[in-house]
Amino acid sequence: MKLIKLTSMVLTAGLIISGFGCTKKIDEFGDINVNPGIVAEANTAALLTNVLSGMGGEAWQVNPGLYAQLYSETQYTENSRYQRLQPDFGGYYSGVLYDLVNIIKLNTDPETAAKALANGSNANQIATARILKAWWFLRVTDLWGDIPYFQALNFNGQIPYDKQQDIYTDLFKELKAAIAQFDGGATVKGDILLDGNITAWKKFANSLRMIMALRLSSVDAVKGKTEFLDAMGASGGYLSTNADDIQLVYPGGNYSSVFYTYYNLTLRSDYAISKTVSDFMNPSGDRRINAWGSSTVGFTYGLERNDAIAFASANPNWARIMNPSIRTATQPMPIITSSQITLARAEAAQRGWTAESVTNLYKAGIEQNWRLWGVYDATAINAYMLYSSVALTAGTELTKIITQRWLAAFPDGLEAWNITRSTGLPVLTPAPGTVAPAGTSKIIPIRMGISQSHFDLNTTNTNAVADLYKIGGEKDSQYGKMWWVKP
Fold first, then answer.
1. Residue 58 reports pLDDT greater than 90
2. Looking at the 3D structure of the chain, how many domains does it have?
């Protein structure tokens, strides 16, 4: 039965254990326990709610967050020591993406479109679903690289994989077309994220395009600049203030927030704020560490199991993720924020893509992120901006801007990993004692391996793409270069 469980979507995909802006509380789900798969006709509002409810869990990507060193493992440390992972992307296709395709079909088919109008104008529902479909597909391709895309949701047996470059081109197009599709009709129902606010959805889509465009800086800067400028100037605008921050709000109870569920309800403690993060934040007086962790004692990254257990024993106050004062049942989960976009604009300006002020955007983006986490203080942030690892000085600008983008991605491990892979910054020290495999100089993985089920069920197509990611004799290597990864 398709019950809404806040981490169920990503569990299915095998990726994780699991003052705020344009948001709507999850307790406004409506009839969430209705299974669209067994009713006579699927309800588009229920389908939309189901998709949106999964975004909170998806935004905490633990394994990518380990690779980006936002997090450390505290007991079983194999993943942060780079054992090969082969999570199954099939859960996305049969889950959230399938629901979104159904929303589009039900609002397009003349036989069902009239009934679907009960949940908002057909155009508004389709546009919303297209933006979300792009957001989810983007996360899949950013994890695996080449994936089934153009024919993936036809469910017609053997499905070819598509090149990541072609997928990105289509996602840019889809987001732009979706924005143009919104009309002045009835508000979409079931929207627990943005309450059917068309302006907010346009800002979401344009902001996503800007982040995608920057990801191309190392492989196709011309395309990146063109798409960035187009999105920045597009109808609806982009996230620019904390009032625009998009977060999924939890009501508590059966629908408690992700980190509260993990630490307080399941009583797990396998993950910590990494010492990589705390070592950067503590000396500079970065007050965000007081929100992100239960203490300022980061856990040393990538230790072997016995060493990790010894560290935990010697440092019992190691930093669990989120300060308990904000790790509540109702803690919102950031999906995309103004601080991310402002810092992206700072990077674009530094790269010469725009004529905006790098200095002003850099400080504004950091300030927005401090405000997001409730730690803003004018005196403290002014001192922080002067600290040597933060202050923009000649020749250090790009490194420092990207480092702040890496931090502002928190707690989204995948976005942090995207930043480190596409730019090579910040420079991360691999787990101690790990070495690069034959055929590459990289130690930290740059993609996920494909689940064995796809080799079994989609054999020819999966083997073909596995050959493209062959490194040192290993097919489908986690070190095989994805298109936009910096060489």
1. yes
2. 1
